[in-house]
Sequence to fold (778 residues):
Amino acid sequence: MRKSKGKVVRYNKWGYIFLLPFILVYVVFQLIPLVNTIYNSFFENYMSGLTQIGPNFVGLENYKKLFSEGDIWVYAKNTMVLWIMCFIPQIILSLLLGAWFSDVRLKLKGARFFKTVIYLPNLIMASAFSMLFFTLFSDGGPINSLLMQIGFIDEPYKFLSNTGSARGLIALMNCLMWFGNTTILLMAGMMGIDTSLFEAAEVDGATSAQVFFRITLPLLRPILVYVVITSLIGGLQLFDVPQILTNGTGDPMRSTMTLIMFLNKHLYSKNYGMAGALSVILFIITGILSLIVFKVTGNDKRKG
Amino acid sequence: MKKKIVSAILCTAMAVTMMAGCGNNTSTNAAADKGAAAEDGAAADTAAEETPAADESADASSDEGSVLNIYCWNEEFKSRITDHYPDYTEVDATTGTIGDVTVKWNITPNDDNAYQNNLDATLLKQADAAADDKIDIFLVEADYALKYVDTEYTMAVSDLGITDDDLANQYQYTKDIVTDSNGVLKGVSWQGCPGVMFYSREAAKEILGTDDPAEVQTYVDTWDKFNQTAALAYAAGYQMTSSVNDTYRVYSNNVTSKWVEDGKINIDDNIMQWVEDSKELVDAGETGTHELWSDDWSKGFYPEGKVFCYFGPAWLVNFSMAADTEGSIGNQGGWGATEGPQGFFWGGTWICAAAGTDNASLVKDIMLQMTTNEDIMKEIVVDDDDFVNNKPVMEAMAEDTSYSSQILGGQNPLGIYCAGVENLDLSNLSAYDQGCNEEFQNAMKNYFEGSTDLDGALDLFYKAVVEKYPELTY
Fold:
C-alpha cells in the first residue's frame, strides 16, 4: 500500500516538471508584466525630452484623468463599431464557406485549393496590406480614377477623410484578413459533426437550410463561442491596420482611433503611468466581455 | 530503472541542445565582444607604442580617448568626413581612424523615432559609461535640436575652445536653432538649407504671361498677392501648391512667439494666418490636403500634375522632385526659383558634442574643419552640391556666372537662396516644435476637409499635444 502510494507521488512529480516550462514562460512573460503594469498605473512617470518626471505615487489620479477627459469611451466605441462591422460579414461568409466546403453532397472540386486561397490574405503582413489599401484608395489612386472613368463620380472621393468609408475600409481589410482563419476553424467544427446525422436528415427529407439551422449550427456552438471570444479579444486589440492606414492620426477626427492606438499615443513620452492605467482598463473590459459572451452562449451548450 | 536512466539521458540531451541552441548566440556575442576587446586592446597597444614618439612631438593627444563615438542616422556626415576631413582613413563600413583614434559610427535610421530613442537611452547612461563607450559626437536635426541642446548632455561649443569669431561667417539661423534657452551655442552645422519657391515655368507663362523669376516674384511677394495669384492659377486650370502643407514651413519659420510659453501651449498669429489662408485656398479648390511625400503630393513633379509651385531648399529640386525621370518638369529644366512671400529653411544637420566626451580636442577640430575651413567648404559645394554654412563662400558662388542649374532652366539660384536666408529669425524655437508642428498639421487637415470646424480641430490639436507632452496645459 505504502509503496504504491509513494509511486503515485513520484509520477505526480513528473507532471509538475513537465508543467514547469509553461509556468516559467507564463510567469516571466505574462504574470510579471501584468502585475508590473497594474503597479505602474498608480504612478506619474514619463519623459519630458531627456528629463525623467517621476515616478511619483499618485494613487488613482491616472484613472481619474482618463475618465474625466471622456475620450476613452469614444475610442472604446470606435473599437467596438469597427469590430462589429468586421465580424458580422466575416462570420456569415465563414459559415457559408464552411458549410459548403464540409458538405459531402456538394462534392466541391478543388476544395483544398480554395481553402488555401481564402487563407492567403492572412499571410500578408497587416502593414503591407494597409499600405496597399492606402495606395488603392488614396485621393488620386486607382479606385478613384476607375470610379471617375466609368462616370460614377465626378470628383475623387476622399475615402480616408470620411468616417463611414474610413471605418468601412478598416472593417473590410480585417474581414478579408481573418475570414479564412475563421472558415478553417468552423470547418474543423463542422467536420467533427457525426455524418450519420446529416444522412438521417437527408432520409427525412430536410432541406439544406433546415440541415444548416437545425443540425449544423446547434452542434457547432462550442466552436462558435470560441471563434466569437477570440475574435472579440482580437478586435479589442485592433491596432496595426488603422494605425498604418491613417498614419496614427485616427482621422477623420479620431473616428478610427482604437483603444490600443490611444495607448500607443501615450508611449511617445514614455508615459508609463497613463499607458498602464489604460491597459488595466482594457484588461478589465476584455475580461468582462469575454465573461458575458461565455455566459450567454455557454449555458446553451449544456442544453445542446 | 533502465528506462529511467534512458529517459533522464534523453531529457538532459534535449535540455543541452536547447541550451546550446540558445547559447550559440551568446557565444558568438562573446566572441564578437572578445574581438572588439582585442581590437581595442590592439588599438590601445599601438597607441601605447606610439605614445613615446608622439609625446616628444606634441602633447595634445594625451587627453584623448582612443575611441571617438559618433551617433547619427544616415551616411551623410560619414561621407563628408571621409571625403573632406584630413587624416581620416576608412577601415570598414562602421569604423575609421583619425591618427591613433578609432572612429566608431553608430548609425540608427530615423524611422519611427528609432534614432532619438537609441540616442536618449545612451545619453542617459553617459555618466556611467566607460570612457571608450561614451558618445563624443551626435548629430541632430532642427525639429528636435532643442530637446538635446537645452540639457546638460550637450556641451557648449565655447567649452571646446571654439570662439564666436571662428563662427562669424555662419548664417545666423543655423546658430539660433542650436542655442539653448540661456543663449549658449551648443552645436554647429556645415550646411544651410535656405528654401525658395520653385515654380513651373510653363505654368507661369500660361498664368502670368512670364517666366522671369524677378517678374514672377512680384506676383507672390506677400501672402495676399500669393493668394490672389492662386485664383489666377485656378482659372488657368492649375493648383497653386500641391498641398496646404507646402506652405506650412514658410509660415512656421516666421513666427514671433514660441509653441510653448510657461508650460502653456500657444499658437502664433502667423500659424493661424496659415490656417485662414489655407482654408480659403482649399475651399476654392486651389490646393489639396495631401501629406508631404505622398503620391498625390508628388504628382505636380510632372507637367500633367498641373501644380504651379512647390516650396523647398536646393535638395528638394535637385534630388527629390524626380529630376532623373524622363518627362518630369525637372528633367526638362522646367522649374524656376524665386524668393516667394517669406524666407524659410528646410532640413540640415547639426553637430553636437556630448558632455563627458573624452576626445574634446578632436571634437573641436572636427567641428572647426568641417564648418569653418573655407577650403573644405568650397570642396563640399563643388563635390556634393551642398549649400554650405558660410556666407562669403556662398555669396562668391552666387556671383559666379559659370554656375547654373540645369533643372532650373539655366538659372543660378544661389543668390536667391542667400537672400532668403539672410533675414530668417529662428529665435522662437521650443523643444516641443516637432510634436506641435506634426500634430497641428494633422489636426488642421480635418478642418480643411470639412470634417470639423476650427474649434474642433484646435481641440484635437491640444489633445494630441498633451498626449505627447503630458506636462503641458492649454
